[in-house]
Amino acid sequence: MAKHKVLVAEFDTPAEIVSAAGKLQAAGYRDYDAHIPFPIHGLDKAMKIPDSKLGWIVLACGITGASIGLGLQWWSSTIEYPMVIGGKPFFSFQAFVPVTFALTILLSAFGTVFGMFALNGLPRWHHPVLMHPNLRRMTDDKFYLSVESDDPRFDLTKTRDLLEQVGGKRIALLETP
Amino acid sequence: MPEAILPASLVEEEKLVSGNPSFHDITHLVSEVTERKTPMAWYIVLALSLGILAAFGGTVMYLVWAGIGIWGLQQPVGWAWDITNFVFWVGIGHAGTLISAILFLFRQKWRTSINRFAEAMTLFAVACALLFPGIHVGRIWMTYYLAPLPNAMGMWPNFRSPLLWDVFAVGTYGTVSLLFWYVGLIPDLATLRDRAKTKTRAMLYGLFSLGWRGSMRHWINYERAYLILAGISTPLVLSVHTIVSFDFATSVIPGWHTTIFPPYFVAGAIFSGFAMVVTLMVLARQLFGLKDLVTIGHLEKMNKIILLTGTLVGYAYAMEFFIAWYSGGEYERFAFINRAFGPYAWAYWTMITCNVISPQFFWFKRFRRSIPVMFVLSIVVNIGMWFERFVIIVTSLHRDFLPSSWGYFMPSKWDLLTFIGSFGLFFTLFLLFIRFLPMIAIAEVKSVTPQADPHFGHRNEGDLVAEAH
Q1: Membrane: present as a keyword of the record (chain A) (predicted)?
Q2: B428 Cβ partners below 8 Å, 6+ apart?
């Protein structure tokens, strides 16, 4: 298997990386990314990242939670273990609202967190950008653009030149087997 | 730059961090707390907390061995400190979720400096809270009956019981708070990983940050996840204390059977929770030099919420009394007159003094911004809120319909030990938190600084202010 290469360039301010990312996008690159200490609003537009699909996952989980909640109470109170309590009907749905609600929220929350992990491909401990000492500041105060060798436009010299043109500093090539 | 046209209040409002720190300063300020040599004082306080926790463990073991008769419970007061403590701790927890969820949805950017801290407090308070219903059932090895599990007896829980709703509500609340807190922590754990000087730190923070690498493509999903969690936690936080109040409101005991309970309990929960955040935050910012990130303005805003919710609680007390009279219910009226002038009058008036009168000091800016005043008042409020739950539970039970079954509840030493012991658990967890985890949301604070805006420096301040409104 070919070595996986990543070219990384450093930027100092949010403004610089937004404009650089816009130029990379305009040059036709698609398999590139920004590594930044906090989300920069506007960078997603410059990179033309599509909207997150997470909402749909959460919706599905929420509906599942509501169904399990109501279904469980209906089934156990009317079919499996019917008991007259306080003269209420077996399916006294008003009393079942709190548990249904709680389970809806619970499953939605699981959907949100694990859905986000799944969409982001986390946990992943061995990405090349994690290995490089120069990139330690991506979680501190520096902003990085990385272009992956999987991108069809990737070319070691041309991409490096482009990154330099758009204002990137300390350009580095990272490799993983 | 046309600075002169800006009203001073607007300019001040914009400043969420003082001292104009750079991104790196923020990282350093927060991370450094976990990196520098452990202060001796921390060990001393931890040892103290662990001692209290051990006493708690012993008490619970004795409780399981001997049964809940060791508490002061008897007829007619079958619930006393156990449920008081439960409601007290659940209430404390509410501030964290309120700050992280509701204030987030309202775009209250000042929350970023305090949310991590408050969320941790929520988790630890909920952990303490969950213990009490767990142990007050006496035969704790039977608590699995609460779970809807198929069992050999073919029995199912009674889903029409508010006590069971409680299990689901508080359980969900604890789980969702934990997830919310952890998701918020991931980028900051990555920060600690990247700053790690030792291999152990790099390994551990690396493990828990799940390989976070600040990718913008990840941030998109991450921010959406955070928004959704805030969106689903908001109704959850309001529902939890509502459901806790159903434990009382759905019964027929005079003094409990009232429709005002859900909103009144929620207001009280936020009230006590904010007070606890202020108590702990005042100490932490003093001890760890975080005054630039948690400014006096943050504390003032929390005090305003304490004033608001305290006044709401005061209104609820008055309204309960009014309805007791207006409903014409003989027992209801007696319950309230007895509350205020009966054998537990001392508890009632402690509650009124602490909860209704003391927060009124916060009408004055001087008191709202004074550290000693807010520290003392926040503790007073917490004492008051414990008494509120005690008053509701015990005064309603000790004199119900039949004078022949009246009684007076006196706590035993085991009641006292269980209550104090739960603070041991709370503070032990808290001390571990402030030592090993970033207690301020680093990434979030950075994103509210002026230089985080991609247009920073490109236009004049007037535009920035105009956009903020």
Answers
A1: yes
A2: B46, B49, B50, B53
